[in-house]
Request: fold
Amino acid sequence: MTEWDIKKLQILRTLSERGTVTATAEALLMTPSAVSQQLSNLAKQLGVPLLEAHGRRVRLTDAAHLVLRHAAAVFAQLERADAELTGYLRGEAGEVRVGAFSTAVPALVVPAVRQLRAAHPALEVRVREAEAAEAYELLSNGEVDLALSLAAHAPTARDPRFSRVPLLADPLDVALPAGHPLAAEAGLRLADLSGERWIFGGSGPWSEITLAACEAAGFVPEQAHSAAGWTAILAMVEAEMGVALVPRMAAVERGGRTGVVMRVLSADQPRRHVVAAVRRGAEEAPGVGRVLGALREVAAARVG
Reply:
């Protein structure tokens, strides 16, 4: 029977994700020569070539990709085994580390933590603010157990490393200065604001979301000002410097701004979809399952 070495398979998987031996060595705190040696030994154990020269670099062979397809199931099963063992040893206690994007922290994560404190006081949730790219790297590296992101910036459902859990579709409302002529307009549509000066980020997810929503409504927004934080965006709206799309989850950051009117858009209400993700198989860990359950309940209450 072929000899399978989990540690060496992990090195091969990391190489497929990082692309180079040097990057793999850095991620695993190994030397490049040690990485090459381990992969050479694995190739001998399996009896197939795993790497081939590609210019000055190496790339995985078809046999290596075949091995990794099966290894994904092995890693998922190991996560399940670890989850069951954790449940046996810890019961209601333990720690779950959550990486979440900025608006999800006050809107979803904090209410879920409060709920869990009452129901499972021995379960500790550690929160780390992180946007999608960082959150999924932390999740892949085992530095967080659960990641929250927008669905548009999450790995696909076909990614064998992660399991995705839809949480909610967050509506986007429009923020208008209190004295704006359309602030009290009945049946306000996004297209009605095509001639306005807009405030949104110069790049990144929120820029993409604003542009996509406006283009779907039939216009390209004129960007008057650029800002990434909701405090800055809403302060500029209040000062009558422009209008902005604001996710309803960010409404908690509106505070007591009496100079801003939030309007629900009619008919063409844009939305952004929020998902949670865990390493495949880890969703069966009791602690992770409880955190996911609390997040679902908070999300359902927001939708309701």
